[in-house]
Amino acid sequence: MASDSVSTAASPSGTVVTRFAPSPTGYLHIGGARTALFNWLYARHHGGRVLLRIEDTDRKRSTQDAIDKIIDGLAWLGLDFDEAPVFQSDRAERHAEVARQLLAAGHAYKCFATQEELEEMREAQRAAKQPLRYDRRWRDRDPSEAPEGAPYVIRLKVPVEGATTIEDAVQGSITVQNSEIDDYIILRSDGTPTYMLAVVVDDHDMGVTHIIRGDDHINNAFRQLPIIRAMNEIEGNWPDPVYAHVPLIHGADGAKMSKRHGAVGVEAYRDEEGILPEALVNYLLRLGWGYGDREEISREEAIQLFDLDGVGKGPARFDIKKLQNLNGHYIREADDARLAALVAERIGSDADVALLTKAMPVLKVRAKSVNELVEGAAFLSAKRPLEMSEKAGALLDDEARQRLGELSKMLQLQNDWTIEALEATTKSYAENLGVGLGKLAQPMRAALTGTTTSPGIFDVLVLLGKEEALARIDAQA
Question: Which segment of this protein is annotated as the motif 'KMSKS' region (predicted)?
Fold first, then answer.
């Protein structure tokens, strides 16, 4: 039995060219972001080029808002492309031209079957429990048999004998019998190209050598190869690309990632979850690709290390807690001024960026998201009288208020408003009372922040400054 095999060698020129080709019918999905990342890293690792194509041929569902969100999401992740985006809708005439070439060379044919005839065919196939597949009724008929002026589509004449084998760079060897692929439509009766044709033509014209995409496209590879090979016979220089089909991302329950698993769009992780781009990139990198036990991998290291042989064959499971922990690492590593600007953006006009920057070293110690930084910084801009949480209010009983009043008098005399001096004074007072420091620190925290959790209490005193700190304590004493 004949078997055609796709080589995994690079292009003749030796230059690797990859592409990311989203459909702008919604946000940049987390799975799409990982596909974009893998294409970007593979091209950068091999000194090649990575291109962006917007597959906007579905004009009813494609929107400018979705295009903007996709491009914005990619930019936020730091994924740049080597040319301006290609919009598939601009290239319809080029796609149709290739369809006409295939028709003229005998690799495609006109099909005049009506919708009614096709539905009758499908009903008969259902009744016989056969696969629903076009029966090639016009494959070898003379177009002159059709009524004059009858509408037609152009179908690809797919090989019916033998099998095709793809040596996938991720999945390994995959074989499909050619008889399982029907003669699908490449040009509709209104002259518009189908997705299957457009993708192949665009990949060729863009010089794409490696197609890295989700494994839900494996079947498409076997449908697209006949076009590539037919055009190679006609023109030459239409080489088979290298295919690398990456397993999809699943939720924690093992099902395909969807909205019910939480946020699935990149902008939601940025805007709602408070994730930093470097954390999401690192997490997506490790979601289906591995390098030993390494969890934290910088972008520069990823470019150096990434290759397709590290991509697993099985689906990866998305774990939000792992992402949050990784995000905590990157928050601790991040520049304080940058984090302060992100927090200020969320707080609004009341934000004191200079104070936030000063506070960031103590705010970011335990934070796992920008949201937690915002929560932790809330006390800095709180207005008196402070709104007390239930737990904080419970700490301020009569005894605690009396002690705060005495402590306030001692702190009023404090000229050296530093962590060390404030801690020494407070400890001395606690010792005189015969109580542990916590007996003073917790009511102080409540009075200063309105909560029971905050950075170290002496950090809070210094950040608020003497005047504001004492005013807050006095308000509760």
Answer: 256-260
CB contact at 8 A, 370 and 343: yes
Report the candidate in 444, 437, 451 with the shortest Cα–Cα distance to residue 472: 444
259 is in an annotated binding site: yes
Side-chain-side CA neighbours of residue 19 (13 Å): 26
| Residue 149 φ/ψ region, left for φ over 0, alpha for ψ in the -120 to 50 degree band, beta for the rest | left
Please give the pLDDT value at position 258: 74
CA dihedral 112, 117, 118, 123 (to 10 degrees): -170
**Inter-CA distances, 99 with 94, 283, 471, Å:** 9, 42, 79
Q: What is the pLDDT of residue 262?
A: 66
191 CB-near residues (< 8 Å, 6+ apart): 96
Which member of 259, 313, 364, 409 is catalytic?
A: 259
Segments of the chain with pLDDT less than 50: 1-12
Neighbours of 257 (CB within 10 A): 20
Q: How many CB atoms lie within 10 A of CB 477?
A: 19
Catalytic residue at 259? yes
Q: For the chain, how far is it from start to end, CA to CA, in angstroms?
A: 91
* Contact call for residues 269 and 280 (beta carbons, < 8 A): yes
Number of alpha carbons in the 13 Å side-chain half-sphere of residue 127: 6
Q: Under a CB-based contact definition with an 8 Å cutoff, are residues 242 and 274 in contact? A: no
Q: Of 363, 274, 374, give the one whose Cα is nearest residue 327.
A: 274
**Residue 40, amino acid:** W
Do residues 223 and 182 lie in contact, with contact meaning Cβ atoms separated by under 8 Å? Answer: no
pLDDT score for 264: 78
Residue type, position 442, single letter: Q
Best CA proximity match to 460, nearest among 372, 386, 355: 355
User: With a threshold of 0.85, does the pTM exceed it?
Assistant: yes
